[in-house]
Design goal:
Cytidine Deaminase, domain 2, 5-stranded mixed sheet, alpha/beta
């Protein structure tokens, strides 16, 4: 196929939308089901690059959950605890390594992943398709599908679910262009390789970055390579737990991603796991309710008497002291930044979310202050010398 007509552009009023290859060659994607939109394809092409690089860097199959051209979450295949299976709503499913990767990618930030576009680094299997069928999602891209998986996905959304297959051998032109306000921009593609070599410069007193932490730092940097900048990414055990994208201030980005990481951890609190939900409450409504429950204003919501909509009995609030004590148990988190940290306040905020390992570009005039703050908390930091802005 040399040209693909789309439903519309970024918005319904932007008609005559299509994609094509400027050199007249065939597109590297095939539509197996549904009809993709403009943003669907932006998500698909960015997310597939991400998971392809994750698998190449770690040797494990990978998955990503994309929304508005940034990852809500990404992960490689990993062993999932019983607690994670419960909070990701997959404790009743048979899971393949690829299905585990997607469950973890979506579970990083389930609220943001609502209506996502999914990317898989390997052929979609029945287990992953079965998991995906019951989630609210706009589409999927993968290098292939088993017959069973394709049949399951084609039945999703009354047969309209978007299923794309990409040619895994496709190699894009090394020079890329785009148009803004009628002006054409041109640059070399960002083909920077994210490898362990980037983690060798460790100016902090603590220079110990274990193998698992180094893997998580690589994951964070690869995720950042395809996240709208400014961006910061928290990773633990092979999965993102907080991605902050598109912030003008880096500390705001660190806070946003850190708050998501905190929520991920608080969802595992015994009180949250024991919430007495009514059987009729759907997963998205449970996610939204849990988000309110662990927020600072939940006691006000309780006072308004809205708990009866969701719970069989009135749950005790999770107090600020409860949350602080639980968050202090979170450790071993890896954090990546797409550019240098200009102030030590970023490190202070990262420390509150259990960060023990950091990878960032370095090169700020305040690097000494950043290093000093890392040393204050015994954080091991690598300065990569590589900026990863993405726009």
């Amino acid at each position: 196929m040399k040209e693909l007509a789309l439903k519309y552009g970024c918005n319904p009023n932007q008609a005559q939308a299509k994609v094509f290859m400027k050199d007249g060659s065939d597109l590297p994607i095939t539509v197996l089901n549904g009809r993709p939109g403009y943003i669907n394809l932006l998500d698909a092409l960015n997310s597939y690059q991400l998971v392809k690089e994750l698998q190449a860097a770690t040797g494990k199959v990978a998955a990503a959950s994309f929304k508005h051209v940034s990852p809500a979450g990404a992960a490689v295949a990993t062993e999932m605890s019983a607690t994670l299976k419960k909070i990701y709503y997959v404790d009743d499913l048979e899971l393949s390594p690829l299905a585990c990767a997607y469950a973890c990618a979506r579970g990083a930030d389930r609220m943001s992943s609502y209506g996502d576009f999914v990317a898989l680094s390997a052929i979609c299997d029945k287990e992953t398709a079965t998991l995906l069928k019951r989630e609210v999602s706009d589409g999927i891209i993968a290098p292939g599908y088993t017959d069973e998986a394709l049949a399951i996905l084609k039945s999703k959304r009354k047969g309209s679910y978007c299923v794309l297959q990409i040619n895994p051998a496709y190699v894009p032109n090394p020079i890329e262009t785009k148009e803004v306000y009628g002006v054409t921009f041109q640059q070399e593609r960002n083909n920077a390789k994210i490898t362990l070599d980037l983690l060798q410069n460790r100016p902090t007193r603590n220079k110990d970055i274990p193998e698992a932490a180094a893997r998580d730092l690589l994951i964070s940097l690869i995720v950042l390579k395809y996240t709208q900048s400014n961006s910061v990414c928290y990773v633990k055990d092979g999965m993102t737990i907080g991605v902050g994208a598109g912030q003008q201030s880096r500390v705001h980005c660190t806070r946003l991603a850190g708050n998501k990481a905190d929520n991920w951890w608080l969802r595992q609190h015994p009180q949250v796991l024991a919430l007495p939900f009514k059987e009729s409450i759907r997963r998205p409504d449970r996610d939204n309710t849990i988000d309110v429950y662990i927020s600072d204003d939940y006691e006000d919501v309780l006072a308004e008497g809205t708990w009866q909509q969701f719970f069989t009995t009135k749950p005790a609030p999770l107090t600020k002291a409860d949350k602080k004590a639980w968050l202090q148990k979170l450790h071993g988190v890896a954090l990546g930044s797409d550019a240098f940290f200009p102030f030590g306040d970023n490190i202070e905020r990262a420390h509150r979310s259990g960060v023990d390992f950091i990878a960032q570009a370095g090169g700020s005039i305040r690097d000494d202050n950043v290093i000093e703050t890392c040393d204050k908390y015994h954080i091991a930091m690598a300065m990569t010398g590589l900026r990863l802005f993405h726009h």
